[in-house]
Design goal:
Blueprint lengths: L1 H18 L4 H13 L4 E5 L1 H9 L3 E4 L3 H7 L6 E2 L13 H8 L6 E4 L4 H12 L4 E5 L2 H7 L8
Parallel strand pairs: 1-5, 2-3, 2-4, 4-5
Helix pairs in contact: 1-2, 1-6
Length: 153
């Protein structure tokens, strides 16, 4: 059930992200998908807030592409699960992979390069029933700029 809702929502959001704008039809479809799913909460967080969550062992998922992980490294103990493929489409097994590392009733944080993709990803997870999702607003670039440690790939 969650997979079907997620796929429908992912298609809508992928279209919006890929096109950079949405039509009234896409907005209505997103609203309809949102209404049919039990919504969770999405919070934007800073690097310091992420560090506090990591200290509490909250699951962190890095949704970037593999080449991005290689370029910058990753936050230690983060799970690498790509959300958007190079062509802008949603990775088909994203939700299944997330479900293997993070239960919907447990908090989960998402990080990307600058916080844009995670905003969409966090909304997707909240729409399919994840209760508390955190979006790292400045992504890995902000993490690195703040002299936080990364693990090189």
């Amino acid at each position: 059930m969650y997979a079907v809702r997620f796929l429908a929502l992912a298609i809508v959001i992928s279209s919006v992200v890929g096109l950079g704008a949405c039509s009234k039809t896409e907005t209505a479809a997103a609203d309809s998908a949102a209404a049919s799913a039990q919504q969770g909460s999405v919070s934007n967080i800073s690097n310091d807030e992420l560090q506090a969550l990591l200290d509490k062992k909250v699951t962190l998922i890095d949704i970037r592409l593999p080449e991005e992980w290689q370029q910058t490294g990753i936050v230690a103990d983060s799970h690498r699960i790509t959300l958007f493929q190079k062509d802008g489409s949603v990775t088909p097994d994203f939700l299944a992979k997330v479900q293997k590392v993070a239960a919907p009733d447990k908090p989960v944080a998402l990080i990307c390069r600058t916080g844009n993709r995670t905003r969409a990803g966090a909304e997707m997870l909240a729409q399919v029933g994840y209760k508390q999702v955190y979006n790292v607003t400045h992504g890995i670039t902000g993490w690195i700029k703040a002299d936080k440690p990364v693990v090189r790939q």
